[in-house]
Amino acid sequence: MKISVIGCGYLGAVHAASMAKLGHDVVGIDVDAAKVEALSQGHAPFYEPGLPELLSETVDNGSLRFSADISQASGATVHFIAVGTPQQADSNAADLRFVDAAFEALLPFIGPGHLVVGKSTVPVGTAQRLAEIIEATGASLAWNPEFLREGFAVQDTISPDRLVYGVRPGDDSASAILDDVYSSILAQETPRIITDFATAELVKVAANAFLATKISFINAMAEVAEVVGADVTQLADAIGHDQRIGRRFLNAGLGFGGGCLPKDIRAFMARASELGAGEALSFLGEVDAINLRRRERMVDLCREVLGGTIEGAKIAVLGLAFKPESDDVRDSPALDVAARLSELGGIVRATDPHAIETSRRVRPGLDYVETVAEAAKDADVVLVLTEWREYRAIDPAELESIVSVRAILDGRNCLDPVQWREAGWTYRALGRP
Ligand code: UDX
């Protein structure tokens, strides 16, 4: 099938390459000429395991190309909209200007028999509004939310847990076209839910709200555990054995960040308020507050371990990305904590295997170093803020002659307290005695 993907950011670039891998003829369109240039040469503009290989393969075999010219979409009959929906600068609501601009730019190139497929995360009601706009062209609209996780984006796109199609009631041709697009995914017996626009839009934000709630639930338990001297990681293991609860997404620590969960729960609350259903989601305000409190708690713990004052202390920060296997620092708890410690007068030296460049763009004033050894040199305390595999594997003996004081704070409950304490270190974590 001939497919266009409008918007080649995180979602769109991965989707375009994955559709080409599935055997389609794909053009990715983006207004950013530099991004188009990089992608055209098979280079991913961000760190995502497996994506560079997939891009080179599909660009080299001619099934994938990129362009900054929207008219290149005219050869396709299925058009995915994968542009960003960031949080508005002055409110919690989603900013839909990129979605609206993409639809407007695409209008001259669509007609009867074409299907426009929204993948961006949008406030409920958006698909209905856009469907009315494109009706005059004779094309149809479907909303097909995406659930990919950074770090597993290619795998999540090619082997998703489920497919969701939001279509106009009775629009069987829209579902049939999507079935053709995803035929090799459906052959893996992937569940597929065909529903209306509003449900499809809600599925996405409800899934993210549930995940955020699960993380904040365990972080609330961490707060209580700290007061009573209990261990939240053992508590998570114990309740996670109950299959109704499940152990995944019960890792207590610095909490959630990234380009999706924080902004999506806020936009969901904002939209529900507009629709008069704000009360139903008021608990998400608490989920957000618990999440943000983790960062403050980390700063407090650091102050405590340093004997009451951060000013002038040498602080090594290991990890800046919002999670491992990503260079994304959007709303990153790790980068936020590093910046706060620096603002409080700490002499912060921070490192990350992949997120130094992205961090430098957001927080240019911090002191970034390439290696753990440079960060830890003469440090009064070492903080692990993103649980990269290489940080989980650090041997305390490697660091003891480098640091000034043997103190480590585990912001992600990813280290073995027994190992560090036996090596003579002060080990502190969130929600553990
Ligand atoms: C999320 C959703 O998982 C995905 O389905 C959606 O499409 C986009 O948003 P992503 O932002 O890539 O994906 O990251 P995710 O793996 O969900 O992690 C989000 C944050 O939660 C990270 O900061 C992570 O460190 C944190 N987290 C996750 C926890 O603090 N504890 C956990 O147990 C799990």
From TrEMBL:
TM helices/strands, residue ranges: none
Keyword Cell membrane appears in the UniProt entry: no
Specify one Pfam family.
UDPG_MGDP_dh_N
- The catalytic site is made up of 260
Q: List the catalytic activities from the record.
A: UDP-alpha-D-glucose + 2 NAD(+) + H2O = UDP-alpha-D-glucuronate + 2 NADH + 3 H(+)
SUPFAM superfamilies per record = 6-phosphogluconate dehydrogenase C-terminal domain-like, NAD(P)-binding Rossmann-fold domains, UDP-glucose/GDP-mannose dehydrogenase C-terminal domain
Q: What is its EC number?
A: 1.1.1.22
Q: Which GO terms describe its molecular function?
A: NAD binding; UDP-glucose 6-dehydrogenase activity
State the Gene Ontology BP annotations: polysaccharide biosynthetic process; UDP-glucuronate biosynthetic process
Pathway the protein acts in: Nucleotide-sugar biosynthesis; UDP-alpha-D-glucuronate biosynthesis; UDP-alpha-D-glucuronate from UDP-alpha-D-glucose: step 1/1
Positions of NAD(+) binding? 30, 35, 85, 121, 150, 263, 330
- Entry binding sites for substrate: 147-150, 204, 249-253, 257, 323
* Domain annotation UDP-glucose/GDP-mannose dehydrogenase C-terminal: ranges: 316-417
User: Keyword set for this entry?
Assistant: NAD, Oxidoreductase
Which domain of life does the UniProt lineage start with?
Answer: Bacteria
Identify the NCBIfam families for this entry: NDP-sugDHase
Similarity comment: Belongs to the UDP-glucose/GDP-mannose dehydrogenase family.
The record's PANTHER family line, in alphabetical order, gives: UDP-GLUCOSE 6-DEHYDROGENASE TUAD (PTHR43750)
Protein name listed in UniProt: UDP-glucose 6-dehydrogenase
